[in-house]
Design brief:
Strand content: 25-35%
Distance between the termini: 45 Å
Number of strands: 21
Largest sheet: 7 strands, antiparallel
Helix content: 25-40%
Mean pLDDT: 81
Length: 417
């Protein structure tokens, strides 16, 4: 990438204008200047890339992934494959030109737990990914890649429409048009600042997600949920069974007229920026498709069949659809009026259950129940419950979570259970 950048930076130096300013000519002096600037920078970039490639070595030793880094100062890491949370096959734009790929292995353990295996051939990267998934599931490394069943492909029109028809985007678009009209009619150049800020907001809210999630497909296989997406940088993400901690069914107000929904997830192993980039399980789809995918991630779950008990009348709620409920498999909480969210967490994935009460809630005899998952975009809570009801929910949910963990066992080596 550095090579391309500096070549483009030095390319204008090849040309110089004559005295008349009408012609452009190439001179030996300018060519020498271009080579002096570009060649050393290109050599440094190539050397840095070659150094990084030589400094990384990895092998699979039984049930461990052994990664060695460094040339002058070597460092060896031995990672149990049971710690693998997700495996992504990523192909940035530049590496796609040379038929290369990266395998990114997400481990349990925080923000610095990602292992990136770069400069692999496309076929070699796919084979490595399949072997790691098989061994993490407890199968022999030579096990063929599991077949997949396509579930949904997001049409480009639906993706573009879902990004456009959101209240913040609509408001920003109106602000952009209004500022342009005001600037033209009243010749007020100061409105150019407002128009520029609104345009940047539209690019970030529409263009960036459109490029990231273009060609989005979801498929199901025995080794987990497979996601493929990306226009410039393509990504194939595989989330093994049991790694999705919580799911949120998001239905903005404008979308509900079309029956659209989005699925956001908290996946164990992702942290920081990687968590934000990998938080979308389905950018937009019919609500029935989203519910079906939830039932595949949390087997035997029917979110709409879980009875939801409304919050206490002493609390503040703008939507009668708000409520919380549970069954033997999941805990469900629904809230929001402008943008309705239905948060779902499997009892086996709950890390803790706690009760909180603000000063105002204590005055009204209310409390909020939190069913905690690992840090991520989905946080499940049932707000404004009567204090006695909240305590009963905490005790019941804790018992269900303990029983579910005993029945489910360790999510690692799932294929041998």
């Amino acid at each position: 990438m550095l090579i391309i950048y500096f070549v483009l930076l030095g390319f204008p130096l090849l040309f110089t204008r004559t005295d008349s300013g009408a012609a452009i000519q190439l001179t030996p002096e300018v060519l020498a200047r271009f080579l002096i600037i570009t060649v050393p920078v290109a050599a440094v970039a190539v050397g840095a890339g070659l150094w990084g490639w030589l400094a990384l070595r990895f092998t699979i030793d039984g049930d461990d992934l052994v990664v060695e880094t460094g040339l002058l100062r070597k460092r060896k890491r031995r990672i149990p494959l049971s710690r693998i949370q997700a495996i992504d096959l990523v192909r940035p734009l530049v590496t796609r030109v040379f038929a290369l790929a990266e395998v990114r292995v997400e481990l349990a353990g925080g923000d610095k737990s990602e292992i990136v295996l770069r400069y692999l051939g496309k076929n070699a990267a796919q084979q490595l990914r399949a072997e790691l998934l098989a061994r993490a599931a407890g199968l022999p490394g030579h096990t063929p890649e599991a077949p997949e069943r396509p579930l949904w492909r997001v049409p480009f029109g639906s993706l573009f429409g879902s990004l456009i028809f959101r209240l913040p985007v609509v408001g920003t678009g109106l602000l952009f048009l209004g500022s342009l009209v005001f600037m033209i009619v009243y010749a007020e150049l100061g409105m150019l600042v407002v128009a520029s800020a609104a345009l940047l907001g539209l690019i970030r809210a529409v263009v960036a997600p459109l490029v990231m999630y273009a060609n989005f497909t979801v498929a199901l296989s025995p080794d987990g949920v497979r996601l493929r997406y990306g226009l410039l940088e393509t990504r194939m993400q595989t989330v093994p069974p049991g790694r999705v901690q919580a799911i949120s069914l998001v239905e903005p107000m404008i979308w509900r007229g079309n029956g659209w929904a989005r699925l956001e997830v908290t996946v164990a192993g992702y942290a920081g920026e990687r968590q934000a980039l990998s938080s979308i399980l389905l950018p937009v789809a019919p609500r029935a498709v989203a519910l079906h995918l939830i039932s595949q991630v949390f087997p035997g779950t029917n979110v709409d069949a879980v009875p939801l008990v409304p919050a206490s009348s002493k609390g503040v709620s703008f939507d009668k659809a708000d409520g919380a409920g549970t069954d033997d498999a999941v805990f469900v909480s629904r809230h929001g009026w402008g943008c309705r969210r239905t948060d779902v967490i499997a009892h086996a994935r709950a890390q803790s259950v706690r009760l909180t009460s603000s000063p105002i809630q204590r005055m009204l005899g209310l409390a909020t129940v939190h069913v905690d998952a690992p840090p991520g975009p989905v946080q499940v809570a049932a707000g404004d419950r009567d204090l006695g009801e909240a305590r009963a929910i905490v005790e019941s949910t804790a018992r269900r979570a303990q029983a579910a963990r005993r029945a489910g066992g360790d999510p690692g080596r799932w294929a041998t259970r």
